[in-house]
Design brief:
about 350 residues, alpha+beta, Methane Monooxygenase Hydroxylase, Chain G, domain 1, Alpha-Beta Plaits, 2 domains, about 45% helix
Amino acid sequence: MSRTSGGVFDIPAKEEQIRKLEAESGRSDFWNDQAEAQKKMRELDSLKSTVELWNGLGKEIEDALEMLELVSEEGDESALSDLEAEVEDLERRLADHEFQLALSGKHDKDDAILAIHAGAGGTEAQDWASMLLRMYLRWAEKHGYKADIVDHLDGEEAGIKRAVVEVRGPWAYGYLKSERGVHRLVRLSPFDAAHRRHTSFALVEVMPLIEDDIEVNIDPKDLKIDVYRSAGAGGQNVQKNATAVRITHLPTGIVVTCQNERSQLQNKETALKILRGKLYNIELQKLEEQKAKLKGKHVDAGWGNQIRSYVLHPYHMVKDLRTGYETGNTDAVLDGEIDDFIKAWLESQVGEEE
């Protein structure tokens, strides 16, 4: 495998960056600026992981090629079959890692905050929002990610009005950012006595989980913080103490809430993380709109940005309206099998970012 293919695959360039950062970290004044030092150490760890991964894969490929030559000469059919299976596994892992390296956004490697909001339509939309929540929780589970529901509001009869989930794992934000937008469901309603076909909508927001980032400055004077009792299904109070937190960002009017942690302090810290992510998304959206104007493109925002349709009647089809990718296996998709949709969108973005 070539070590000099350039760009994200240029391993010698990454090894040179490692040497420079290691030399820098050895200076006596390196830790004078703690925040900057920690940032560089995280960069160093990331570079080392990438180089070790690719060098390891390269060694495995070289060994497999040598073994293939040896087995071919000996004519051992059994060994050849085993080797073919090993090569297939290497090809799959190589494709996965190449795809990860293609993610070049600043926060693509970070954890993510996923928020789901039921659209208009009452119980129908709230049930659809809960179906989406299950889909993303199953997706996270399949990838070995840790997913914690940090805020939710149940529907009156079924489903949820909203839910906010922290998804922690490598590339969580890089993958999930493809899910931002409006998701549309068409089905025969289980809540309609006449069993008529209904269309429901839900909005999915995805933000990077920014623990503490200098690019998002929040002035405490701009915050209105309220505390209240956590509520269960149907709005019933489930705690005697006021531990739930609602933060209003006065300049933008953004409101975030968190009620699932045990203490008021934990809920406040989580709510601030969500707020930082939302403010980052606002700046990111402004940048995308500016780029779109320069390229002569029209960009719909918020509820107007429908990205995917899930049709369960009169036929079965899930189709991404941005890429055209579709599948008839709706059960698998709703059970968390959404990687093909994610990859199709990310691949469509290659060359879009500047």
